[in-house]
Structures are given as C-alpha cells and as structure tokens.
Design a protein that fits this description.
Blueprint: E1 5-8, H1 12-26, E2 31-34, E3 38-42, E4 54-57, H2 60-68, E5 76-79, H3 82-90, E6 94-97, H4 102-112, E7 118-123, H5 130-136, E8 141-151, H6 156-162, E9 168-172, H7 175-180, E10 190-194, H8 197-201, E11 209-212, H9 218-231
Parallel strand pairs: 1-2, 1-9, 4-5, 4-7, 5-6, 7-8, 9-10, 10-11
Antiparallel strand pairs: 3-8
Length: 242
C-alpha cells in the first residue's frame, strides 16, 4: 500500500508551517497535500481602544490582524491556547494562555478577576460567544472582527487524493473546517484527527476512524498523528464510519 498522505486544509501560511514541522518530525513516513479551505483577509483598522485594559485572542490570525492594523504592544492579553500565546509573545505582547478551548479561557479570565474593559479580536466566523458570556458574568468585554475567513473549495490535487487509494491522514482543527470538507463520499481510506469532540461531531464525510486529540492544541494533534503513524491501521482491515 502507498505511504499515507497528510492533507492540510488550514490557511496557506499555517498549512505550510505545519508541513515543515511534521516533515521534520515524521521524515519519509508521510507526504503532504496542501489545499486551504479558507483565505484570510485582515481589517485595516482597529476600533477605538480608549479605556481597553486587556485583549483577548482566540487564534493566531487574531494576533496577526491586530499587529497588521498597528495595535499597541503595551496591552496584556489572554489567549485561548499556547500557540496563540506564542504568536502574541513573538509580537511583543504580554500573553497568558488558557491552554485549551473557549471554556477554559472563560474560566481563567473569571478566576483571575481580570481587569476590564476587555476587547476580543476575532474572525467573522467564531464560536463560543466569549464576549457575551463574560459580559453576562460581570466582566465587560467588547468584540471586533479583525479578520474574515473566505471559503475556498478543495483543489484538484486534494480531490484526486480523496478519490484515490492511498491512506489520507486529515487533521481537522475547527467545526467550520469540518463542514467545509462536505459530506463526501470519500473513496480513499481517511483517518481524521479532530482537535476536539466538537470538531469531531461536525464531520459529515465518511472515514475509517476518527481520533480526538487529548487536548485542543497543536501539540496534542501532533501526538495523535504520531500514534496513528506508529499503529498503521491502514495495513489492517478496518470498518468505515459515516
């Protein structure tokens, strides 16, 4: 059987970065196909930051959009996870990571009794209702759309891959990405690595198996991918799920 292919569907820059990291990690065990499902465009201007004490970022793109719009670097921020925190710190911001998902972010901000008013810089498509939920619990949070995710169909290479016979390892990082992948059918034996249970629940296409990462972060997805490559389930008989 042909060696497995990792299909990367995050925006262009993120997919190429993951391919570099995983190529170094897994060497010649895999090949890659990059087919972004979204293209990111940033808003050129920020809203009035007068009175804002703390920022909230729930993605690397939020950080990039803030910096792209000339946001000041002297405001502290909370981030949903460690990857976003690293992006914020690399940009010169003081970042505190919730190390997980929207729920852990809300819990951390409330537990810290963080200073407000706060500003959540997010994409046009977002989940979790972070600003609304924090505001309802006495922590005033405004929100602004700092970037937009534009849908892109799978490219010819990705479609051919999913219609082929080689095993496809498909990391899925968001419910939106899962939905954009459609409902199939996919002919290739496909192994999904979902960042969370919510992401897994949004998958509509057929697959051989779906692994849910232990934690909703890139490191846990990498560990789940490594476990798949070690076990090589495509070399045994499997039952396809829908």
């Amino acid at each position: 059987m042909a060696r497995p292919v990792i299909l990367l569907t995050r925006p262009e820059a993120s997919s190429h970065k993951m391919a570099r990291i995983w190529s170094d990690r897994f060497g010649h065990d895999v090949s890659f196909c990059i087919s972004p499902l979204m293209r990111i465009t940033f808003e050129p201007k920020l809203p009035d930051l007068e009175g804002i004490k703390t920022l909230i970022f729930t993605s690397v793109n939020g950080v990039a959009g803030y910096i792209n719009a000339g946001g000041p670097r002297n405001l502290p921020c909370y981030t949903v996870g460690d990857v976003t925190a690293r992006a914020a710190k690399d940009a010169g911001l003081q970042a505190i990571s919730a190390g997980g998902d929207a729920e852990s972010l809300i819990r951390l901000i409330l537990a810290d009794d963080a200073q407000g008013p706060m500003l959540h810089l997010r994409g046009a498509h977002a989940r979790g209702e972070i600003a609304e939920r924090l505001s309802m619990q006495g922590c005033p949070v405004a929100q602004t759309i700092i970037y937009t995710q534009h849908d892109i169909p799978l490219n010819t290479e990705a479609k051919a891959l999913l219609d082929g016979t080689a095993p496809v390892l498909l990391p899925v990082f968001s419910p939106r990405s899962a939905l954009l992948l459609g409902s199939g059918p996919m002919q290739a034996p496909t192994y999904v690595i979902a960042m969370s249970g919510t992401v897994a629940g949004s998958v509509r296409f057929n697959y051989e198996h779906c692994t849910i990462a232990a934690h909703p972060d890139f490191e846990s997805v990498t560990m789940a991918l490594a476990a798949l490559l070690d076990s090589k389930p495509w070399e045994a008989n499997t039952t396809r799920s829908v």
